[in-house]
Design brief:
Helices cover 40% and strands 18% of the residues. It is of the alpha/beta class. The chain folds into two domains: 9-163, 3-Layer(aba) Sandwich (Rossmann fold); 170-286, no CATH class. Helix 1 crosses helix 7. The longest helix is centred in the last third of the chain and has 21 residues, at 225-245.
């Protein structure tokens, strides 16, 4: 793995056909990487030049270079050497599996092996394993996917490569709502705040919403709020990194009160602000704030 002198960080995915490179690339795409499948190795330096141009917003790139490139694939070693000489930061990930696993996967998908279009799948697997032996030795990370589900493969990649980048790419949506209008159907987590004092019964606050400072101050200073957040925040602190590590791209947290105008609105805003400060991408939606 080389150190960058500037420009985006590259992940180069390779390995045996049927070992899960498509699923791996999906994990990087969900993490916000710029992704290209089946890129001929000789085009990678050109891509580096393109993404190093002033104004490029791309910071992380994942490309798949494998035996589907045919005669061009043999240039992969030279491409890696060129990246190192140009001080491009990259990680080489190699995916593999046993012959039995790969044969079964090819039978399930009914696809031909790229190195044995007219022959047996097993012959293609063995030829490809021999072709990639040298590349495997140069890999920064080798993953045997034989016993991994697609979700487990995502988790491995998130844990070992994508890491903290998930914090900035997973989106947490805090949705305020009123129970009298029903629970949001897209909510992953639900929290009920109807136990807190209701600003509705204060005639000076009734016509306002949780976005107004007077209502927000009322809710955040109300009896029970501090005890509630002292319990709720550690729970969310525990859950959020684990949802991110599992590769989840979007998580919706519903915060409900009676009508969805006062308490739930203020607390959804409070939580979103808190987690923005923690480095997460947090958005707020107030589903029922405009209702009577």
């Amino acid at each position: 793995m080389t150190l960058a002198a500037g420009g985006p960080r590259f992940v180069i995915l390779s390995g045996l056909s049927g070992a899960g490179k498509t699923q791996a690339l999906d994990a990087f795409e969900d993490a916000g990487y710029f992704c290209i499948d089946n890129l001929p190795p000789q085009l990678v330096p050109t891509l580096v030049d393109l993404l190093r141009h002033e104004g490029s917003k791309v910071e992380h790139v994942a490309v798949v270079c494998d035996a589907r490139g045919g005669e061009y694939f043999g240039q992969l070693g030279a491409m890696l050497l060129e990246l190192k000489e140009r001080e491009v930061e990259y990680s080489l990930v190699f995916l593999e599996a046993s012959e039995e696993t790969l044969v079964r996967r090819f039978k399930e998908t009914r696809r031909r092996h790229p190195l044995a279009p007219e022959g047996s799948v097993l012959d293609g697997i063995r030829a490809e394993r021999s072709l990639l032996a040298g590349l495997r030795e140069r890999a920064d990370l080798i993953i045997d996917t034989g016993e991994l589900s697609s979700q487990q493969l995502r988790s491995r990649l998130n844990e070992q490569l994508i890491g903290e980048r998930r914090r900035s790419t997973i989106v947490f949506a805090f949705v305020s709502f009123g129970y009298k209008y029903g629970i949001p159907i897209d909510a992953d987590l639900l929290f009920d705040v109807r136990f807190l004092p209701n600003p509705y019964w204060d005639l000076d606050l009734r016509s306002l919403t949780g976005l107004d400072p007077a209502v927000r101050d009322f809710v955040l200073a109300s009896e029970g709020f501090d005890d509630y957040t002292e319990r709720l925040l550690p729970l969310l602190d525990y859950l959020f990194p684990r949802y991110a590590a599992e590769g989840k791209a979007h998580l919706t947290v519903g915060i409900g009160c009676t009508g969805g105008r006062h308490r739930s609105v203020s607390i959804a805003e409070y939580l979103a602000g808190h987690y923005k400060q923690q480095g997460y991408t947090a958005i707020v939606r107030h589903r029922d704030i405009a209702r009577g």
